[in-house]
């Protein structure tokens, strides 16, 4: 069921035009590649990604959320376009709207110097290379995870260079990436550095076996040993890394929600088609109340997820930092989409847990989404702290 003829409230004409092109491309061109064998247990191969991106360029849907002058669509417009790209698990990779590249492009466009934008951002926007964001560290070593202040990776000044040492974990797409953003702690505080990959001082120790497999390069454990980075490749200023991470964080959380809303929309379409075609006990599955009610609940959850995304996008477009709002959206949307994906599997029975459709993969990806970019419980804890702070301010007044 195509949504091209439907213009959601608040979506601009330009976003609808771009979104329609993306939807046609993902449904007609990308979806048939979902059975392509060029993938391993850690994700699609770079050969497959390269081919898909060539098709995206030909269809004029490469990096559709970034305009020709380098500016980005508004968050509300991006929400519509990225949802269309997410209609297939391969769609964001083909259209260059996938994590971590999409969030990294946003960050570099806001903070990067002219040199960084030319040398590192331009190849990302064109889709010539992938990127990785080196922040999370091994939990067994007490490193940074949901609490970035625990960062162990260090950096120190050496003339006009910085020397970085540490270990990172769950680094999405590190294998095969061409651009890396490395986060480390100096005497001033957190710092970020841009590096070209592969680099002899950045060594992939192993690729983790995880429940999801939609990201090329998988998720890596990485050792950084005496990485020397010129001062000009520092992003912004020393000690401002946490502030830059927050700048990236809220939009990146939200764009995760956008893409996976598209995936669950498609999974629900597949489950709905199955329920209307499949006969059981003398009638279509859809006519059995237990099945029909699950699909009705899916529509409710999908609509609520869309409204939450649009609300948070409007907050960001208004100029707020959106940290609390993006936490609320991440929790509400990831939990709602988990329910949708689970019901799709249940409606389809044995077919739902097979690889015959993307429903099984979407279920696995959404389960990981409830953890990536902060588990539900961490976001709720952060919101509870905000509630307490606001209460104290109100009481003091």
Automatic annotation (TrEMBL):
UniProt keyword annotation of Oxidoreductase present: yes
Pfam families according to UniProt: Acyl-CoA_dh_1, Acyl-CoA_dh_M
GO CC entries: cytoplasm
UniProt xrefs under InterPro entries: Acyl-CoA_dehydrogenase, Acyl-CoA_Oxase/DH_mid-dom, Acyl-CoA_Oxase/DH_mid-dom_sf, AcylCo_DH-like_C, AcylCo_DH/oxidase_C, AcylCoA_DH/ox_N_sf, AcylCoA_DH/oxidase_NM_dom_sf
Domain Acyl-CoA oxidase/dehydrogenase middle intervals: 133-209
Keyword annotations from UniProtKB, A to Z: FAD, Flavoprotein, Oxidoreductase
Reported cofactor(s): FAD
Ranges for domain Acyl-CoA dehydrogenase/oxidase C-terminal: 239-386
One Gene Ontology term from the biological process aspect of the record: fatty acid beta-oxidation using acyl-CoA dehydrogenase
Molecular functions per Gene Ontology: acyl-CoA dehydrogenase activity; flavin adenine dinucleotide binding
Stated family: Belongs to the acyl-CoA dehydrogenase family.
Protein name in the entry: Putative acyl-CoA dehydrogenase family protein
């Amino acid at each position: 069921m195509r949504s091209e003829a439907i213009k959601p409230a608040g979506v601009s004409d330009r976003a609808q035009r771009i979104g329609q092109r993306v939807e046609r491309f993902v449904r007609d061109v990308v979806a048939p590649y979902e059975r392509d064998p060029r993938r391993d247990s850690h994700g699609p191969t770079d050969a497959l990604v390269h081919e898909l991106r060539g098709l995206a360029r030909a269809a004029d849907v490469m990096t559709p959320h970034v305009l020709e002058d380098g500016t980005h669509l508004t968050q509300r417009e991006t929400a519509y376009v990225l949802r269309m790209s997410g209609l297939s698990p391969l769609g964001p990779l083909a259209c260059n709207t996938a994590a971590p590249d999409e969030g990294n492009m946003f960050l570099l466009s806001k903070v990067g110097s002219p040199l960084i934008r030319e040398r590192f951002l331009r190849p990302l926007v064109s889709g010539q290379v992938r990127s990785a964001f080196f922040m999370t560290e091994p939990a067994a070593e007490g490193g940074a995870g949901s609490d970035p202040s625990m960062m162990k990776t260090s950096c120190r000044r050496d003339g006009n260079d910085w020397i970085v040492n540490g270990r990172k974990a769950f680094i999405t797409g590190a294998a095969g990436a061409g651009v890396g953003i490395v986060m480390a702690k100096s005497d001033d505080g957190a710092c970020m550095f841009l590096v070209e990959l592969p680099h002899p001082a950045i060594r992939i120790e192993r690729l983790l076996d995880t429940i999801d497999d939609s990201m090329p390069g998988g998720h890596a454990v990485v050792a950084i040993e005496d990485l020397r980075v010129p001062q000009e490749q520092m992003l912004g200023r020393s000690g401002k890394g946490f502030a830059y991470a927050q700048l990236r964080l809220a939009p990146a959380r939200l764009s995760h929600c956008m893409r996976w809303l598209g995936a669950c929309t498609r999974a629900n379409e597949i489950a709905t088609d199955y329920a209307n075609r499949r006969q059981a006990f003398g009638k279509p599955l859809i006519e059995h109340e237990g099945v029909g009610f699950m699909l009705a609940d899916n529509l409710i959850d999908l609509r609520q997820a869309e409204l939450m995304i649009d609300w948070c996008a409007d907050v960001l477009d208004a100029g707020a930092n959106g940290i609390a709002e993006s936490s609320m959206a991440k929790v509400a949307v990831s939990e709602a989409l988990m329910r949708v994906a689970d019901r799709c599997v249940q409606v389809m029975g044995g077919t739902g847990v097979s690889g015959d459709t993307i429903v099984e993969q979407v279920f696995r990806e959404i389960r990981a989404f409830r953890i990536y970019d902060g588990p539900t419980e961490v976001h709720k804890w952060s919101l509870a702290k905000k509630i307490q702070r606001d209460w104290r301010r109100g009481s003091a007044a």
